[in-house]
Amino acid sequence: MVDRSESDSRTLLRRLRDTLATPGDGQDRLDRITHLIAHSMRTQVCSIYLFRDPETLELCATEGLNPEAVHKTRMRLGEGLVGRVARTGQPANTANAPAEPGFRYMPETGEEIYSSFLGVPIQRVGEKLGVLVVQSREARLFSDDEVYGLEVVAMVLAEMTELGAFTGDQGGIGAAHRFPVMFRGSTGQEGAAEGRVWLHEPRVVVTNPVGDDPDAEKARLDEAVSTLQAQIDDMLIGSASMDKEQRQVLEAYKMLAHSRGWVRRMSEDIDLGLSAEAAVEKEQSTARARLEQSTDAYLRERLHDLDDLSNRLLRLLTGQGKDTGAELPENPVLVARNIGPAELLDYGRKLKGVVLEEGSVGSHAAIVARALAIPLVIHAARITNEALNGDPILVDGDQGIVHLRPEETVAAAFRDKIAMQAEAQKRYADLRNQPAVDRAGNRVSLMMNAGLMADLPSLKGSGADGVGLFRTELQFLIRSRVPRRGELAALYKRVIDAAQGAKVQFRTLDIGSDKVLPYMKPQEEPNPAMGWRAIRLGLDKPGVLRMQLQALIRASEGRPLSVMFPFVATPDEFNAAKATLLREIDREATLGRPVPSDLRVGAMLETPSLAFAPDSFFAGCDFISIGGNDLKQFFFAADRENERVRRRYDTLDVSFLGFIEQIITRCAASDTALSFCGEDAGRPIEALTFAALGIRKLSMRPASIGPVKHLLRRADLTELKAAIDAARAGGVQTVRPAVTAYLAGLQG
Ligand code: PEP
Ligand code: MG
Predict the structure, then answer these.
(1) Model confidence over 93-127: pLDDT tens digits?
(2) Given 364, 379, 403, 710, which residue is catalytic?
(3) How far is ligand 1, taken at its centre, from the CA of residue 631, in Å?
């Protein structure tokens, strides 16, 4: 960097900072700033364009252009040179602006006499705020130092914008984080919620973007970088138990943290007058803008690493931890890039909704959100950049849509939707003590799925007959180590106690595939959903299975016990698992401990193969529960986690229903109890179809019991079966239209 420009730059930045300290409204400050910059850069024009809304830039202040154009001249994102700078996040530097492709002439500004143009983005950590432009009459290209210097100035403007320096009533100057923004993600858990943003990791606030003493700032930066490097080295030393991917991320961190270029660029920014914090943010923003343009998935993934490192560095420099001391707002909606199941569980039911940038339908966070019945939207790209703690937010878990700082009309419509849902819930709650019977008196047992202690209060409130599926893996997923037998026994006992005599069907550990324990050595499997999971893992490594079975036996304290094994593909697997359970019961008996007064052992039918098992299997199995989530994915060969295909095939497809009927027939022949516990059991149309075909026990999330019971009580399952059969006889591919038409015709 050239010395002259360094001291010029420092003087300019200090003056900019002083404008923050002086009284006046946002417009005064902007006007003074454009004047200062034009003077310092020795250009005739300096203009500041800020976003009016996410698609429109507005000229908010100018030195040199026609003042009448201020707050009148606007351009779309990508339009003209200014729009291009805003869209790409990269500077535009030209000696002959009118000759540039895409140049847009704006007569009201009087800019035609200016030939050279330099525009740089005003952006902060990937968030676009506006564009800073200088123009001059003589046709010259700005030097690299000048471009760099203007970028540094823009960084200070970005921080000042963030601090609210330019808000004011004159002309409604665009302040960051004020516009309504809609995010289109995917559904993680249905439901609608209105609340206020609670950032899981709030952004660091940089209160002083300008540094007075470059040497002192560089010393602070060096110290923070050394601490950061040491922290990462420590993490790598402790990474022996991590999986390959986690280690790779750490290695990438290490490379970045030790990168000389990164530290050198930040030092140069400090030489030009930025504080250490602002220098970190500037490099983060610049690199972000570059990486975001890249089509290379690997490079884009590095964005996360860069953000993480920069945030760590900022926290070291500012001393701001994750805990900012802010109070959880009323009706908090958690907004995060991602969150672990244990952390989500810590927040618990306090949360009205959860919005994640990452995640997947089967992720642990999604499993917990579902267990807690909290609306969840995943894949809401960049929301952590936009949202501020306390911002109003609407979460539409049904559509996978989030409205941040919504317009009043949107909020009003949304409230109607929530009110309708609440109304329906109330109606369902009134049904709590009514039997789940159809008009003809056919009874269907409605059970609930659970996996956390937190679910159990719903047992009474939902009107469920018991717990048809207790997913034991959640207790393993939310811990950082394998839970001990005593802990599990105490927990299972509380579950059985809470059920007050109602049946609880405990499913043994279903891990592997998408459910990977944080402390389990992950297996590299090309196709984990069809890999080493659930009972396969339990039989091959029986230690944990035996420990869990012992805990269940002890928890029963001589009361009845129901255990089911997940993902059984062959009778051999079921027999081996059952034998293990019986051995453990014998062992407990030998030790003089109480054993279950009544033992029921079942299998989850989640692979088509089990439906074709010999009769002896069905005869030897106390009950079968159809795990429709898995069964359907294998029946149609359509990955339940893959957004492209997971909704492609209809559960009411005649082929799938025919298959389900075969299972019903086989269970009936051997008098084996049958239930259905996949997600479809909680969807009223699907639930009634299964019941009409003959499955009279359905297990679902607690919130679905009301809607299913409501519909069931209005229907006649025999009539519905006739409608289904008539449709099938007519050669349809799916009976959905016939079922929907029948249900729509019901009275009441
Ligand atoms: C299923 O597969 O339908 C099921 C209930 O199990 P999970 O969703 O836990 O795999
Ligand atoms: Mg399953």
Answers:
(1) 999 998 988 888 888 888 888 999 999 999 887 67
(2) 364
(3) 9
